[in-house]
Amino acid sequence: MASLIHTLALKVWDYHHLDHSLEKSDCIFVLCSNDTRVAERAAQLYLQGYAPFIVFSGGVGELTQNLFSGSEAEAFANIAIDLGVPETAILVEPHSTNTGQNVEFTRALLEQKGLNPDTFILVQKPFMERRTYATFMKQWPGKQAIVTSPQISFDDYPNDQITYSDVINVMLGDLQRIDAYPARGFSIEQDIPQDVWQAFEQLVHHGFNEHLI
User: Which positions fall inside the DUF218 domain (predicted)?
Assistant: First the structure.
Protein backbone atom coordinates (compact mmCIF):
# COMPACT_ATOMS: atom_id res chain seq x y z
CA MET A 1 0.00 0.00 0.00
CA ALA A 2 2.78 2.47 0.91
CA SER A 3 4.38 1.88 -2.48
CA LEU A 4 1.10 2.57 -4.27
CA ILE A 5 0.51 5.76 -2.29
CA HIS A 6 4.03 6.93 -3.14
CA THR A 7 3.56 6.22 -6.85
CA LEU A 8 0.24 8.05 -6.99
CA ALA A 9 1.55 11.00 -4.99
CA LEU A 10 4.62 11.32 -7.18
CA LYS A 11 2.39 11.54 -10.26
CA VAL A 12 0.49 14.47 -8.72
CA TRP A 13 3.74 16.10 -7.53
CA ASP A 14 5.19 15.94 -11.03
CA TYR A 15 2.04 17.44 -12.53
CA HIS A 16 2.28 20.47 -10.26
CA HIS A 17 5.78 21.23 -11.58
CA LEU A 18 5.86 23.38 -14.72
CA ASP A 19 9.59 22.94 -15.38
CA HIS A 20 9.96 26.47 -16.72
CA SER A 21 13.41 27.55 -17.84
CA LEU A 22 14.67 30.55 -15.90
CA GLU A 23 15.26 33.83 -17.71
CA LYS A 24 16.28 37.25 -16.47
CA SER A 25 13.14 39.15 -15.52
CA ASP A 26 11.98 42.50 -14.16
CA CYS A 27 10.89 41.22 -10.76
CA ILE A 28 11.13 38.20 -8.47
CA PHE A 29 7.69 37.76 -6.90
CA VAL A 30 7.64 35.47 -3.87
CA LEU A 31 4.40 33.96 -2.59
CA CYS A 32 5.20 33.36 1.04
CA SER A 33 4.10 30.51 3.29
CA ASN A 34 5.42 28.33 6.09
CA ASP A 35 8.25 27.03 3.90
CA THR A 36 11.30 29.24 4.33
CA ARG A 37 13.13 27.31 1.62
CA VAL A 38 11.10 29.42 -0.80
CA ALA A 39 12.77 32.54 0.61
CA GLU A 40 16.17 30.91 0.18
CA ARG A 41 15.36 30.06 -3.44
CA ALA A 42 14.33 33.66 -4.14
CA ALA A 43 17.49 35.05 -2.54
CA GLN A 44 19.58 32.66 -4.62
CA LEU A 45 17.91 33.89 -7.82
CA TYR A 46 18.45 37.53 -6.91
CA LEU A 47 22.11 36.94 -6.07
CA GLN A 48 22.53 35.17 -9.41
CA GLY A 49 21.28 38.30 -11.16
CA TYR A 50 17.91 37.10 -12.40
CA ALA A 51 16.04 40.29 -11.42
CA PRO A 52 16.80 43.69 -9.86
CA PHE A 53 14.39 43.38 -6.94
CA ILE A 54 12.21 40.98 -4.94
CA VAL A 55 8.67 41.37 -3.67
CA PHE A 56 7.74 39.15 -0.74
CA SER A 57 3.97 38.75 -0.38
CA GLY A 58 2.19 37.09 2.54
CA GLY A 59 0.39 37.93 5.74
CA VAL A 60 -0.35 35.47 8.54
CA GLY A 61 -2.07 32.27 7.46
CA GLU A 62 -3.46 29.23 9.20
CA LEU A 63 -0.12 27.41 8.99
CA THR A 64 1.94 30.41 10.12
CA GLN A 65 -0.20 31.74 12.97
CA ASN A 66 2.48 31.06 15.57
CA LEU A 67 5.44 30.27 13.33
CA PHE A 68 6.87 33.75 12.74
CA SER A 69 6.96 36.84 14.95
CA GLY A 70 5.35 38.89 12.18
CA SER A 71 3.99 38.31 8.70
CA GLU A 72 5.28 35.64 6.33
CA ALA A 73 6.58 38.37 4.01
CA GLU A 74 8.58 40.04 6.78
CA ALA A 75 10.06 36.71 7.88
CA PHE A 76 11.02 35.80 4.31
CA ALA A 77 12.54 39.24 3.72
CA ASN A 78 14.72 38.84 6.81
CA ILE A 79 15.95 35.48 5.53
CA ALA A 80 16.86 37.04 2.18
CA ILE A 81 18.70 39.88 3.89
CA ASP A 82 20.64 37.38 6.02
CA LEU A 83 21.65 35.62 2.78
CA GLY A 84 23.02 38.83 1.29
CA VAL A 85 20.12 40.48 -0.54
CA PRO A 86 20.29 44.24 0.12
CA GLU A 87 17.28 45.66 1.94
CA THR A 88 16.98 48.29 -0.80
CA ALA A 89 16.19 45.51 -3.30
CA ILE A 90 13.23 44.20 -1.28
CA LEU A 91 9.56 45.16 -1.13
CA VAL A 92 7.21 43.62 1.43
CA GLU A 93 3.47 43.05 1.06
CA PRO A 94 2.40 41.75 4.52
CA HIS A 95 -1.39 41.47 4.27
CA SER A 96 -2.45 38.82 1.72
CA THR A 97 -3.85 35.51 2.95
CA ASN A 98 -4.40 33.58 -0.31
CA THR A 99 -2.89 33.30 -3.78
CA GLY A 100 -5.35 35.68 -5.40
CA GLN A 101 -4.60 38.33 -2.79
CA ASN A 102 -0.86 37.75 -3.25
CA VAL A 103 -1.29 38.92 -6.84
CA GLU A 104 -3.87 41.63 -6.16
CA PHE A 105 -2.03 43.24 -3.25
CA THR A 106 1.39 42.98 -4.90
CA ARG A 107 0.05 44.60 -8.04
CA ALA A 108 -1.31 47.47 -5.94
CA LEU A 109 1.99 47.83 -4.06
CA LEU A 110 4.03 48.00 -7.25
CA GLU A 111 1.65 50.57 -8.75
CA GLN A 112 1.93 52.62 -5.57
CA LYS A 113 5.73 52.55 -5.93
CA GLY A 114 5.51 53.58 -9.58
CA LEU A 115 6.84 50.22 -10.75
CA ASN A 116 5.44 48.40 -13.78
CA PRO A 117 7.39 45.20 -14.39
CA ASP A 118 6.41 43.19 -17.46
CA THR A 119 8.21 39.95 -16.67
CA PHE A 120 8.14 38.03 -13.40
CA ILE A 121 9.78 35.05 -11.78
CA LEU A 122 7.18 33.63 -9.40
CA VAL A 123 8.72 31.68 -6.51
CA GLN A 124 6.46 29.25 -4.70
CA LYS A 125 6.38 25.85 -3.03
CA PRO A 126 7.00 22.98 -5.49
CA PHE A 127 3.45 21.61 -5.37
CA MET A 128 1.94 25.08 -5.90
CA GLU A 129 3.78 26.02 -9.09
CA ARG A 130 0.91 25.30 -11.48
CA ARG A 131 -1.87 26.91 -9.43
CA THR A 132 0.30 29.97 -8.82
CA TYR A 133 0.87 30.37 -12.56
CA ALA A 134 -2.82 29.85 -13.36
CA THR A 135 -3.86 32.40 -10.74
CA PHE A 136 -1.27 35.00 -11.74
CA MET A 137 -2.18 34.80 -15.44
CA LYS A 138 -5.86 35.30 -14.63
CA GLN A 139 -5.42 38.07 -12.08
CA TRP A 140 -2.73 40.02 -13.94
CA PRO A 141 -3.26 39.57 -17.69
CA GLY A 142 -0.73 41.01 -20.08
CA LYS A 143 2.28 40.09 -17.98
CA GLN A 144 4.76 37.26 -18.54
CA ALA A 145 5.59 34.82 -15.78
CA ILE A 146 8.04 32.02 -15.12
CA VAL A 147 7.45 29.85 -12.07
CA THR A 148 10.12 28.16 -9.97
CA SER A 149 10.42 26.61 -6.53
CA PRO A 150 13.02 25.11 -4.18
CA GLN A 151 14.88 22.41 -6.07
CA ILE A 152 13.79 19.55 -3.79
CA SER A 153 12.48 16.10 -4.63
CA PHE A 154 9.17 14.75 -3.34
CA ASP A 155 10.95 12.33 -1.02
CA ASP A 156 13.17 15.06 0.43
CA TYR A 157 10.46 17.71 0.77
CA PRO A 158 8.84 16.76 4.12
CA ASN A 159 10.54 18.33 7.16
CA ASP A 160 9.68 19.45 10.68
CA GLN A 161 7.12 21.89 9.28
CA ILE A 162 5.26 19.55 6.93
CA THR A 163 4.87 15.77 7.05
CA TYR A 164 4.67 13.32 4.18
CA SER A 165 0.89 13.05 4.67
CA ASP A 166 0.56 16.83 4.85
CA VAL A 167 2.30 17.19 1.50
CA ILE A 168 -0.09 14.73 -0.14
CA ASN A 169 -3.15 16.38 1.41
CA VAL A 170 -2.12 19.87 0.33
CA MET A 171 -1.14 18.71 -3.17
CA LEU A 172 -4.58 17.19 -3.67
CA GLY A 173 -6.27 20.34 -2.42
CA ASP A 174 -4.31 22.35 -4.94
CA LEU A 175 -5.14 19.96 -7.76
CA GLN A 176 -8.84 20.19 -6.94
CA ARG A 177 -8.59 23.99 -6.99
CA ILE A 178 -6.81 23.93 -10.35
CA ASP A 179 -9.86 22.04 -11.63
CA ALA A 180 -12.54 24.13 -9.87
CA TYR A 181 -11.24 27.68 -9.74
CA PRO A 182 -11.39 28.68 -13.44
CA ALA A 183 -15.19 28.46 -13.32
CA ARG A 184 -15.14 30.83 -10.35
CA GLY A 185 -12.97 33.34 -12.20
CA PHE A 186 -9.95 32.79 -9.95
CA SER A 187 -7.52 31.25 -12.46
CA ILE A 188 -7.01 30.22 -16.07
CA GLU A 189 -7.76 26.69 -17.25
CA GLN A 190 -5.06 24.03 -16.93
CA ASP A 191 -5.31 20.66 -18.62
CA ILE A 192 -5.37 17.81 -16.12
CA PRO A 193 -4.39 14.48 -17.73
CA GLN A 194 -6.69 11.57 -16.98
CA ASP A 195 -4.00 9.57 -15.17
CA VAL A 196 -3.29 12.52 -12.86
CA TRP A 197 -6.97 12.89 -11.99
CA GLN A 198 -7.25 9.15 -11.40
CA ALA A 199 -4.31 9.39 -9.00
CA PHE A 200 -6.14 12.21 -7.23
CA GLU A 201 -9.29 10.11 -6.89
CA GLN A 202 -7.41 7.08 -5.58
CA LEU A 203 -5.52 9.13 -2.99
CA VAL A 204 -8.75 10.75 -1.81
CA HIS A 205 -10.25 7.26 -1.55
CA HIS A 206 -7.32 6.33 0.70
CA GLY A 207 -8.18 9.18 3.06
CA PHE A 208 -6.10 12.12 1.84
CA ASN A 209 -8.94 14.63 1.97
CA GLU A 210 -7.94 17.17 4.61
CA HIS A 211 -7.41 20.12 2.25
CA LEU A 212 -10.21 19.58 -0.23
CA ILE A 213 -12.68 22.35 -0.93
Answer: 26-142
